[in-house]
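Onboarding guide, step 5: your first structure request.
Type a short instruction followed by the sequence, for example:

Predict the 3D structure of this protein.
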Amino acid sequence: MLGPTATGKSALSLAIAERFGGEIVNCDSTAVYRGFDIGTDKLPASARRGIPHHLIDIVDPTDEYTAAQFARDASAVIRDIQSRGRLPIVAGGTGFYYRALTRGLFPGPGRDADLRARLEAIAACRGPERLHRLLQRVDAESARRIQSRDTKRMVRALEVYFLTGRPLTDHFAETEPPMPEAEFIAVAVKLPAAAISERVTRRVDEQFERGLLDEIRGLLARGVPESARPFGGLVYRQALEHLHGVRDEAATRALISQENRRYARRQLIWFRKEPGLTWFDGPGESPAMISSVLNFLDASLS
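The system replies with structure tokens like these:
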């Protein structure tokens, strides 16, 4: 169950799990981190209807969790679910995680400390946007999927290019999936841009009202450093800036909504390039959408 942010994937995944005796496997790169709940819009345990959810809250905020690790963990979880006669439902919006699971990742060259240091120095002196512009010149597809402030992933993509002479995306085509025996029935949902905009704005307001800023203060008080990876993601990065006085709360809410709309566009571009997806138009929680997807899966699984 794939698609851009704020399209109702969680509600639809729950309906599928209830109908087919399924368990949900998280495919969101932010939901793996403990303590980051409101800004990642995690479904609380009380709203999961007793359906098991896997790969949520599995690593500390200071841990380095990669797409390769996700592919290994998700493969193990999926095989375990299947061994118990249940249906695994992979749900989320991180396209790179989905690709790692279904198509694999190439092992890549080892880390080059000197090259990394030079690239990181560029980001420190001239800003991460300078790295992003460089990445756009040598690997445009990676530049489209990597956010302009995600220094770690930009450094890795550039490292691969300079060490191999080929873009990261070229290497992906030569990889083997971690579950070659598995058959994935890929369902994706999408909404018009105007609908996503309205839903994102409402969700951001709800996140602030639920205590997003207090959640961040609590994390910092427990010793989670601002350099922790999830603090660099959407919602948390902008909210941290607000706490440092960069902008007022109204402007911060507006900026988070704007960045989420941009992220949704990037997600849609990414998923449209994935092979084998069956698209459905409409909000995932609507009865009509649920009925359409369940009918499709009934036919596909029979």
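Each response can be followed by summary notes, for example: The first strand starts at residue 22 and ends at 26.
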